[in-house]
Model the fold of this input.
Amino acid sequence: MTDIQININSKTYPAIEQAEHHLAITDLKLSLKSGEFICLVGPSGCGKTTLLNIIAGLDNDYDGEILVGQQHTHPKIGYIFQNPRLLPWRTVRENIELVLGSRQSAAIIDPLLEVMQLTQSQNVYPERLSLGMSRRVSIIRAFAVDPDVLLMDEPFVSLDAPTARQVRVLLLKLWQERPHTVLFVTHDLREAIALADRLIFLSAAPMTVVSEIIVPLPRAERHNENAIEAFRQQLLNDYPDIKRLL
Amino acid sequence: MPSLSLLAFLAVWQGLAVYLNSNTLPTPETVAKVFWQGCVTGQLPYHLGVTLLRLVMSFAIAMLLGCAIGIVLGRNKKLDAFFDNWLVIFLNIPALVTIILCYVWFGLVESAAILAVVINKLPNVIVTIREGTRALDQDLLDMARCFHFSKRKTLVHVIWPQLHPFVMGATRSGLALIWKIILVVELLGRSNGMGYQLHLFFQMFDVAGILAYTVAFVTVIQLIELVILKPLDKKSQRWRR
Done:
């Protein structure tokens, strides 16, 4: 794995009919250390999804550069979308197999299904899964390709609290077993503190980095709601600026 | 229930034929006899077979070309704008015109007959598949892109399943349309097939013959629906709740 550097000078949406020319991102620099779990926190509509789409290579209409190691190239991506985006006409297992190409896939898929507790459901079609299960499948799919960076776009939004907690615990378990660089978008500060090595606060559009904060809480304490709440309070006191970003 | 409605239909037919007692409306029994005779002499299966072969060929060509062009036009706005008017024109040219022109330009040959049918069917398929392609789920296409699906994989696993209802629609409406056109094509310029036979019966006012061939024809259509289309529907929809 290698470090990734993202420099976006600007990203604009051209004027279309009624909508005016819109500057979405300006002068944004991120460096991702290999194996680091980074949470991007910012107000909704600030352009976080735009940023993820640029990194994923879905949006190439921007001014800037992405470096993987020293090379100008797009990193290999595992994308966990806000909606799971599973193919409804393929089973859970087929959905994962499809991203793997023709390689020998059972050795990769079986352990992942095991960790995410989906072995029983592997031959089910996605429409029969709960949202929490679909999210877990999309997490497996993203880990399966062994990406340079995992992009997660509010993957726990619209889950009820216990389900969200369960999926979060499973995600952390998987990530600790096989460390990957993660860019995790959220507007929930508690969730961000529970997950991240580093928090990056983003401004409203035009989006840019406001501040970066290392989360010093040891991983073992991340299950402790009180510890997370205490850190959150301390954060809000130390950086009054970020309050308006939440 | 379907068999009950069939029986009721036969009863009404029988009653009406007996009441009218006319050559222009033979009883079901007479038609059945003519049908049986046609089968024994081999005439009916032969002409039906010839027509079916033409149907399969023109249908296959129209569907393959139509799907390919429809997908391309649905994904490419410039090409779509370029061809849109032509599509509307071809959709609306009367079948008879294309049939006559094909025969005049290419002669009274088999390929001209097939071409005439294809030209009549093709715009329909293109328009239906184009609509389906425009309605493709961009989220799933993006997913395929960022997981580096090959073109073939995207087509087979992402695009085709979404187009399936449109393809089935084009298939059903297409079969109905082709049956109708193919008989006219045969009537005008071929010396075998259902259309040719119906023309002969018409000249001899042989209504029993016409009805016997119609029965054969309806049976084949029902078989296609039951044996091919329904199972295909069922298989491809099994993922739905």
About this structure: The interface with chain B takes residues 53, 56-58, 77, 79, 81, 83, 85, 87-90, 98-99, 125-128, 141, 145 of chain A (CB under 8 Å). Chain A has a mean pLDDT of 87. The first strand of chain A starts at residue 4 and ends at 13.
